[in-house]
Specification:
The protein is mainly β. It has no helices and 11 strands. Strands 2, 4, 5, 6, 9, 10 and 11 form a 7-stranded mixed β-sheet that branches. Strands 1-3-8-7 form a 4-stranded antiparallel β-sheet, with no helix packed on it. The radius of gyration is 13 Å and the shape is globular.
Amino acid sequence: QVQLVESGGGLVQAGGSLRLSCAASGSTFSISSMAWYRQAPGKQRELVAYITSGGSTGYAGSVEGRFTISRDAAKNTVYLQMNSLKPEDTAVYYCRQTGVTGREVHWGQGTQVTVSS
């Protein structure tokens, strides 16, 4: 069964950087699409970035140029490098894994990112 364990969240000043990690257990990581979502208080969960099994990436307009998503197949881990952080980036960040059929979706527990001004 797929389990996702996130780490790397914390408190950082505006302009700083954080690197989030999502370690996946299971045998389907290499053929799965991975994504990072975030949810701020009072707002809907939104897509931040995604990476396909083939390595294609996409980003929300609000983070493009500042965030980078990557994956390490040998470690079954997906990363989100966040640079030039802004207070509006404050949210709980969630890792999501989607199977090849699109029918199996797994979420991580979420990790808090707080950016102070």
